[in-house]
Design a protein that fits this description.
Lipocalin, 594 residues, nine-stranded mixed β-sheet
Length: 594
């Protein structure tokens, strides 16, 4: 589940793993793809506990070992082909006569990349000539950094930087060694490391600099010769068949935009029409399960609701997985029309009670749901899961500070520097003309930063590249809309029953900032059928957590708190025409915002 934009040190929080730790000999393909500023190491292997002849997955070692199920996988004596629908990628290669190598091209978003695979044994990936690693323990979070060095026959080097903690690796680097002095430059991240190797060659002590921030980092050699094996995390809530409800793959069309959307409908096995809900995903290209870090929260919500008499439609975002359209140029307004198409489709199903069909939106979905409910009187209810009540600028500034504090940052100077930098990037984009060039935006942001950052930060040669990268991320149609969109006037138009839920420890959509704003807007619009609740000890994904920090998302086995599931389910029954189910009492610590 991609959350609302998070500015962390490396700006990459990768999904997690699906790979098994034991693979049969001779059935694994291993390859490295040069994608410009980054190299990706891939394995193709059978999906665990599935038919190995057809069920194959691509494991991306430089994205935390995330496993992507392959579509249309075909392999014979001469050809290897597959698709990766979730990212709109295709691969086609020719197998060598001895069957040991595949040579081909990876095609994605109109670009071709050379990619060759070779057959490897059970666990082998590659053997770097040197591996150095260390932990940065200050500022944004504790990050384990790794440097991989591969020596060519001519003595030259290929160097990669990995952020092990963030499950993001393969960033191309250049190492310069002069005596005991090391410099490692990572242009794609606007970052660099400068350090001194000790006499024993056992430690390189220095500093990592990026985005005007300098952090202590000591690198030590890793000589373990370990193979890079990724174990699948436990996800005990993920539904498994048989199911006590119907599961149907469906398609429908947003006629206004010419977008065909694909999804899954789960329908209780009942003789009478039942209530129904449409799930609306958070930001970023999401599949129908809102998959993240091997969690499938929308699948779990749908399963729980349909086991309790409620039909659920969830679908792939436009331009994602099996849905058509262009995700990159879309805003929340565009997504709201996709949701309306889903709503119209669901209302044609005779198994669904027309007057009891509503919306459930998570994160950005909590922005989209009120758009639809505010312009349609036939929406029966709206549930906002970590929905926003203030504009995107306020969300990001709050988010940036809370994320750092969840990681244990208490240094006021560091917190101020992060906020000042974020303000400069955001305000530059908000105030600039739409046709402003990248160079003009960067120059404007640098002028702002010249007045607020310490002199030593302004002297860092990595500052401008980092600002440029930040501007490029924020300067998009979606971001411009998000930064300036005011949810209040939209919420004022919503007249149906509304449930707004936030986790107490949500660091991405702060409950104390957003729930009162949602409440006030609904009241201002005359809505008396709403409830705003802060659920204790839950994070942005509605997992039971300790700090709410992003690093916990992957390590927590729970995908969605049972308390959140029961709260959603019981509220729907209480606010639709369906007979209410036995209620599970909300824990006394749950705090309703009056």
């Amino acid at each position: 589940m991609q959350s609302l934009f998070v500015a962390v040190l490396l700006s990459v929080v990768a999904p997690a793993v699906n790979a098994a730790d034991e693979k049969p000999v001779g059935k694994i393909w291993y390859g490295v793809m040069d994608a410009g500023g980054r190299g990706f190491r891939f394995r193709i292997e059978p999906v665990p506990d599935a038919d190995a002849t057809t069920a194959q997955q691509l494991v991306s070692l430089d994205e935390g070992g995330r496993g992507f199920p392959l579509d249309d996988f075909r392999q014979d004596d001469s050809q290897l082909q597959f698709g990766l629908n979730i990212s709109k990628a295709e691969y086609s290669g020719t197998i060598s006569d001895d069957g040991s190598v595949v040579t081909g091209k990876w095609t994605q978003r109109g670009r071709d990349f050379d990619l060759s695979f070779r057959k490897v044994d059970a666990a082998h990936t590659d053997r770097p000539s040197e591996v150095w690693s260390g932990v940065m323990t200050a500022l944004f979070q504790k990050l384990t950094m790794r440097i991989r060095v591969y020596k060519r026959d001519d003595g030259s080097e290929i160097v990669y930087l990995d952020s092990v903690t963030q499950k993001a690796g393969g960033f191309k680097a250049k190492r310069t060694v002069e005596g005991n002095e090391w410099t490692i430059a990572v242009d794609s991240l606007g970052g660099s490391f400068k350090g001194t190797n000790n006499k024993e060659k056992s430690e390189v002590t220095g500093k990592w600099t990026q985005g005007g921030v300098t952090l202590d980092l000591t690198l030590s050699p890793d000589t373990s010769e370990k193979d890079e094996i990724v174990e699948a995390p436990a996800r005990p809530q993920t539904p498994k068949p048989p199911f006590p409800y119907l599961v149907e793959d469906v398609t429908f069309t947003n006629e206004a935009d010419g977008v065909r959307l694909a999804g899954t409908l789960t329908v209780p096995k009942s003789a009478t029409p039942c209530p129904a809900a449409i799930l609306i995903s958070g930001s970023g290209p999401q599949d129908r399960d809102e998959s993240l870090l091997d969690h499938k929260p929308f699948w779990i919500i749908a399963d729980h609701l349909s086991r309790h008499g409620i039909a659920v439609l969830r679908f792939d975002d436009r331009g994602t997985a099996a849905s058509t359209g262009n995700f990159q140029t879309a805003t929340s307004e565009d997504f709201s029309r996709d949701v309306e198409a889903a709503f119209e489709y669901l209302r044609t199903d005779p198994r669904v009670e027309e007057e009891a069909t509503g919306l459930i939106g998570h994160s950005e979905g909590g922005i989209v749901a009120p758009m639809v409910a505010g312009r349609r009187s036939d929406v029966a209810f709206a549930i906002l899961l970590a929905g926003t009540g203030v504009n995107g600028r306020e969300i990001l500034l709050s988010q940036g500070q809370l994320i750092l504090k969840a990681q244990g940052v208490i240094d006021e100077a560091a917190l101020k520097a992060q906020r000042d930098t974020q303000v400069a990037l955001i305000d530059t984009v908000i105030n600039a003309p739409v046709d402003a060039t990248q160079d003009e935006l960067v120059a404007s942001a640098m002028l702002i930063l010249a007045d607020v950052l310490p002199a030593e930060a302004l002297k860092e040669e990595t500052l401008k590249p980092a600002v440029s990268a930040g501007i490029e991320r924020v300067n998009s149609q979606w971001f411009r809309f998000f930064l300036t969109h005011e949810p209040g006037p939209v919420l004022e138009k919503v007249k149906c029953p509304v449930l707004a839920l936030n986790g107490e420890k949500d660091v991405q959509v702060e409950p104390q900032l957003n729930l009162p704003a949602i409440r006030d807007a609904l009241r201002k619009g005359g809505n008396t059928q709403f409830k705003t609740v802060e659920l204790p000890s839950l994070n942005h994904l509605f997992q039971t957590c300790n700090t709410g920090g992003l690093s916990e998302y992957q390590t927590i086995e729970e995908t969605v708190s049972p308390i959140a599931l029961e709260t959603i389910t019981n509220w729907i029954h209480q606010n639709t025409l369906a007979p209410p189910k036995p209620a599970t009492p909300t824990p006394s610590r749950a705090r309703e915002i009056p």
